[in-house]
Amino acid sequence: MIDEKAIAAAVKTMLQAIGDDPEREGLRETPERVARMYTEIFAGIDKNPADDLKVGYELGHREMVILKDIPFHSMCEHHLLPFSGVVHIGYVPGTDGRVVGISKLARVVETVARRPQIQERMATEIADAIVEGLNPDGVGVVIAAEHMCMTMRGIKKPGSKVLTSALRGGFAKRAATRAEFMSLIQ
Ligand SMILES: Nc1nc2c(ncn2[C@@H]2O[C@H](COP(=O)(O)OP(=O)(O)OP(=O)(O)O)[C@@H](O)[C@H]2O)c(=O)[nH]1
Ligand SMILES: [Zn+2]
Predict the structure, then answer these.
(1) From ligand 2's centre to the CA of 78, what distance in Å?
(2) Are 120 and 150 in the same domain?
């Protein structure tokens, strides 16, 4: 449960600590506003992303399904600055041929993005949620993102892209499955 009062108090302390005046007109409502925003952008903390996959269909489909270029914004847990980009997800249904509504894959992305994150773990959590929720033959996740902590501060390398992946089941075991996925998401 997100404690908006505690967030607002902390933001007020931080504004004072950077030497600004939290009582000046422009900042007076900022602590509460940031608290409401945190409730929105960290809404995935207590959720199990596999729950997003409960509504499925046994279509008997046994070929690869891909949803690519799913846009997301998340917050890097090191600096609490955004990192943003796209996720590509592919899976091959299991022996029951169970598939989910395509939007449910994007819901999994939303759930894991709305936590303090690192990009590697985000890929892992998406892949593991699909394994748990769908029991597929295999799943592949590739994420390409730009990190504000590397563009607006620190090393300042705008345009540099971080790529991470997580492969499970047939995507990890079979080079041909992996190659099919990688060529389709290009
Ligand atoms: N592996 C990984 N690293 C990340 C991610 N997001 C941010 N980082 C890195 O986290 C690291 C934190 O490094 P520190 O040395 O503790 O912090 P810092 O002094 O602010 O580091 P600089 O960014 O190099 O200035 C940095 O190298 C960031 O680039 C991510 O999603 N995955
Ligand atoms: Zn960072």
Answers:
(1) 5
(2) yes
